[in-house]
Structure formats: structure tokens, C-alpha cells
Amino acid sequence: MKTQDTGKRMVMAGLLAGLMVAGTTMVQQVSAQQPGVVVSLGQLNSEIHKLRESVGRTMGALEQLKGAAANNGDLNKAYANFSALYAELESQANDVRQHGTAAKARAKQHWEAWQKELTDMQNAKLREKAQKRYTAASGEFEKISTRVEAAKEKFAPLMADLKDINTYLRADLSKDAVSSLSNTIWKMGISGRSADSKLADVNEQIEKTMKKMPQS
């Protein structure tokens, strides 16, 4: 009797183990089928928020450098802070580009898979409802690209100017050199606020799009 009970327990354990393996395989298959667009958009959204914060810190450091020159402050310390923050900003910009590329690639896979699912639907009314959802979500996603392009128009020149200033002051960190950039730095402050505004538009559109995306 004990031998039979033991045998039954072994069979049950084997079945449970088999179900667990099968379940894991199914989860892995489903995960592979889901491109994770919402997750990717969430990462991109987070990186853009970080980028905006980095822009603010870098521009603040540049203003502090300008103030140090005007008040006979420590230029070396002020420049070191600005240069470090500029490097951080450059790194953040690279992260945004990488996550933007990943989000776009995953979205392409997602739209193709979603469209195929719609085509396979037999119920015409349900297919029509699903098509409306698809159109709304894909339309919102496309708006992200439009807002990103608008942000680039403001952000790229700002980054180019920051790079030039960093290079210029690395070669000549003197009171006269910094003072000669006073008007340029003032104009860049305006550019920085404009770039931040456009990046905020991108954040807003990403968040709007994520609400339209199916939650998997």
C-alpha cells in the first residue's frame, strides 16, 4: 500500500513538474510574441525626463560659471562642474536616442502583429471596434515622431553650442574668455528653455500614447 502511495506521489510530482515546465514555456512564448511597446515607451519617457533635468542642471552650471567670472570667483571649480554636467547631458542624449530607436523597432513589430490579428478576426463588428482602437493608438504613436522632430530642432543647436563652449573654455579658462561669452550664454538660456518646452511636449505625447496602447 505504501509502495502504491509512493508511486502515486511520484506520478503527481512528475505531472506537476511537467505542467510547470509547460507553463514556463508558454509564458516565454507569449513574452516573445509581445514586443513590449508600452515598456519601451515608458523607458523612453523616463529618459526624456532625465534629459530635461540634465539640461536644467547644465544651463545652471553655465550661469554659475558666468557669475564666477563677473565676481572674481573660482573659475576652475565652476568650469569643472559645468564640464561634468555637460558630459552627463551628452550621455543622457545618447540614452534617449537608443531608447527611441528601440521603441520604434518594437512598435513596428507590434503594429504588424496587431494588424494580422485584426485580419484574422471573424466577427465583423468586433473587427471594426478593434480597428478603431488600432487606428487611434497608431495615430498617437506617429505624433511622437512629429514632436521629437520639433524637439530636435531646438535641442541639437543647443548641444552644439554647449560643446563649442566646453571646447573653448578648456583651451582658455580666463575671466576675459568667460566674460566674452556673456551674451551667448544669455541667449543659450532662452534656447534651453525652448528645448525643454519641446521635450515636455514629447513626454506629454508619449504618456497620451501609452494610455491608448493595449496593456499586455
> Level of helix content?
over 70%
Classification by helices and strands: mainly alpha
Write down how many β-strands occur, each being a DSSP E stretch of 2 or more residues.
0
Order of helices and strands: HHHHHH
User: Rough shape?
Assistant: elongated
What can you tell me about this protein's structure?
This protein has 216 residues and is mainly alpha-helical. The protein has one domain (38-212). The chain has six helices and no strands. Helix 2 (37-70) runs antiparallel to helix 6, helix 3 (75-120) packs antiparallel against helix 4 (124-171) and helix 4 packs antiparallel against helix 6 (182-212). The longest helix has 48 residues, at 124-171.
List the SSEs and their pairings.
Elements: H1 2-33, H2 37-70, H3 75-120, H4 124-171, H5 175-179, H6 182-212
Helix pairs in contact: 2-3, 2-6, 3-4, 4-6
Characterize this entry briefly.
The protein has helices at residues 2-33, 37-70, 75-120, 124-171, 175-179, 182-212. With 216 residues, it is an all-alpha fold.
Structural descriptors:
single chain, 216 residues, mainly alpha, 6 helices, 91% helix, 0% strand, elongated, disordered N terminus
